[in-house]
């Protein structure tokens, strides 16, 4: 087995950077670049805000399906095939949307792009974690998610920087062109990882028979569902809301997404530290409260103040929700780590798909976009309530031993 001193800092950085770049490509240049693009595409007349919500729903449906595919094909040998294939799908589907104004074609491309996103978002961190575990460096695996924050910042810069000289479908070109070299390098770097499939021993088989769904994990799953539905509304529609509420030329029309991106970059490190200092469960409760306040601000304080608060508070918390929930789940069921993680990603993907769909129904029924954010408020309040029903891992295990 590898020891800590057998891997150089340069090698560790290279592997983590490759994973972060993969997430930046599929999440920043695939999924979330659509958020700052949406108001421009609506303004260009490519489709309406309601149609834009439908396109987002197709993308999130693809993400859910990709996560489910990743659950099915989880071995190292399978990941080595699916990762590069998914990155190729990302590049091709992004190139496709540069060539069409057809809502059907855009929706189909965004669905396939979401499938690729879901596969990479599950498998790239899983592959890197497996590699880090062999080197006793598993605690560094969370650094991969810095790529999500960087992706938000890069996507914001690409959209803003090209806003005056591109129009309609052309606005996807920067994301498509920059994805090609980044995806190629990330896939090449991770393809060189020295890993082999391994069979589970008899102890491992026995351990995986413990229930995945029980009194401890049910409230955790429910809280995570609330988090997924609650955060996806601002992460999909905040720049469009800024366009509807602010005058032309206001700095927040593009600046609101920059705020989200800047606050997201240190979020994984921040919540990892808070969880270590105060405990993961108390930190998760604080995380939900801050995120809830952010979405509530945009409902109660229309205009610049509410937009800034929402961007800053949601941007600085949503990755923390992921990190803390996954860590609590592993602590409650240490033998169910991979299955629990995959199930949570799939659940998160489902609730993210529901958010834009509900928004579309609300807008089609005559509701306003700002009032639709009330769905996010209710979802986060729902999630916060169920966090209080999640037992502390040490208490849960003591109780389980007592009844065995």
UniProtKB/TrEMBL annotation:
Q: Which residues cross the membrane?
A: 12-34, 54-74, 81-99, 111-134, 143-166, 221-242, 248-271, 306-325, 337-358, 370-390
Its membrane topology, per UniProt? Multi-pass membrane protein
Highest taxon of the lineage = Bacteria
What keywords tag this UniProt record?
Answer: Membrane, Transmembrane, Transmembrane helix
Q: Which GO-annotated molecular functions does the record name?
A: transmembrane transporter activity
Question: Which GO CC terms are listed, alphabetically?
Answer: plasma membrane
Q: Where in the cell is it found?
A: Membrane
Q: Which PANTHER family does the annotation name?
A: PTHR23537, SUGAR TRANSPORTER
**Any idea what this protein is called?**
Predicted arabinose efflux permease, MFS family
Species of the source: Marinobacter antarcticus
């Amino acid at each position: 087995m590898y020891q800590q001193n057998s891997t150089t800092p340069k090698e560790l950085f290279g592997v983590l950077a490759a994973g972060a770049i993969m997430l930046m490509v599929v999440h920043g240049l695939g999924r979330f670049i659509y958020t700052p693009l949406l108001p421009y595409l609506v303004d260009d007349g490519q489709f309406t805000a309601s149609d834009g919500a439908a396109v987002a729903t197709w993308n999130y449906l693809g993400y859910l399906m990709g996560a489910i595919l990743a659950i099915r094909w989880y071995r190292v040998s399978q990941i080595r095939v699916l990762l590069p294939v998914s990155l190729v799908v990302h590049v091709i589907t992004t190139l496709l949307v540069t060539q069409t104004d057809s809502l059907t074609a855009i929706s189909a491309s965004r669905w396939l792009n979401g499938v690729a996103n879901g596969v990479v978002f599950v498998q790239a961190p899983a592959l890197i974690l497996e590699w880090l575990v062999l080197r006793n460096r598993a605690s560094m695996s969370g650094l991969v998610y810095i790529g999500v924050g960087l992706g938000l910042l890069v996507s914001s810069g690409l959209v803003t920087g090209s806003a005056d000289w591109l129009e309609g479908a052309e606005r996807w070109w920067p994301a498509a062109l920059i994805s090609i070299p980044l995806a190629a390098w990330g896939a090449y770097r991770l393809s060189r990882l020295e890993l082999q499939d391994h069979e589970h021993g008899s102890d491992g088989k026995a351990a995986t028979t413990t229930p995945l769904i029980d009194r401890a994990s049910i409230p955790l799953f429910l809280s995570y569902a609330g988090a997924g539905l609650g955060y996806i509304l601002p992460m999909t529609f905040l720049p469009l809301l800024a366009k509807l509420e602010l005058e032309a030329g206001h700095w927040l029309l593009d600046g609101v997404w920059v705020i989200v991106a800047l606050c997201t970059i240190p979020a994984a490190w921040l919540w990892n530290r808070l969880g270590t200092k105060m405990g993961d469960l108390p930190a998760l409760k604080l995380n939900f409260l801050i995120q809830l306040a952010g979405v509530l601000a945009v409902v109660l304080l229309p205009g610049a103040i509410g937009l800034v608060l929402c961007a800053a508070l949601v941007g600085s918390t949503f990755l923390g929700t992921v990190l803390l929930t996954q860590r609590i789940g592993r602590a409650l069921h240490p033998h169910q780590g991979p299955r629990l993680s995959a199930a949570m990603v799939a659940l998160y993907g489902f609730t993210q798909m529901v958010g834009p769909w509900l928004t579309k129904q609300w807008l089609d029924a005559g509701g306003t976009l700002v009032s639709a954010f009330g769905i996010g408020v209710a979802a986060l309040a729902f999630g916060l309530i169920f966090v209080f029903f999640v037992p502390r891992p040490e208490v849960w295990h003591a109780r389980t031993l007592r009844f065995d």
